[in-house]
TrEMBL record:
Domain spans labelled TRASH: 59-97
Stored SUPFAM superfamilies: Ferritin-like (SSF47240)
Pfam entry (one): YHS
InterPro entries: Ferritin-like_SF (IPR009078), RNR-like (IPR012348), TRASH_dom (IPR011017), YHS_dom (IPR007029)
Source taxon at top rank: Bacteria
Protein name: YHS domain-containing protein
Keyword field contains Signal: yes
Keyword line: Signal
Record's signal peptide: 1-25
């Protein structure tokens, strides 16, 4: 009886060790994926949007300096090209573009 119990315990321990290893490795894979995703969100110098010339230097909605932090969305409005840090800011600008354009603090920042 005692031997049987010990055998069972060994099998259990082995199974647990195997499971722990599997979980450990799958976690590592997940973490690797996350790192890739977060690095995508960082401003990349290779981002072609950052090479364009914009008529604004500051995101109209959030007032962020797009020349420093990068552009992830753009909008053509009345023949000018505006850059925005995010789609959300662009959408907010589109709701009432003229009210933002009369804000001289933004345009005269150049
Ligand atoms: Zn913004």
């Amino acid at each position: 009886m005692k031997i049987k119990h010990n055998k069972l315990l060994t099998i259990l321990l082995n199974t647990m060790a195997l499971l722990t290893l599997t979980v450990f490795f799958s976690c590592q894979e997940k973490e690797g994926g996350n790192t890739l995703n977060s690095s995508k969100q960082l401003i990349q110098p290779e981002n072609p949007l950052n090479k364009l010339k914009y008529d604004n230097t500051i995101d109209f909605f959030c007032k962020m300096d797009i020349t420093r932090y990068g552009v992830s969305d753009t909008l053509h409005y009345k023949g000018k090209l505006y850059g925005f840090c995010s789609k959300m800011c662009k959408d907010e600008f589109r709701k009432n573009p003229d009210s933002y354009l009369t804000d001289k603090t933004v345009l005269e920042h150049k």
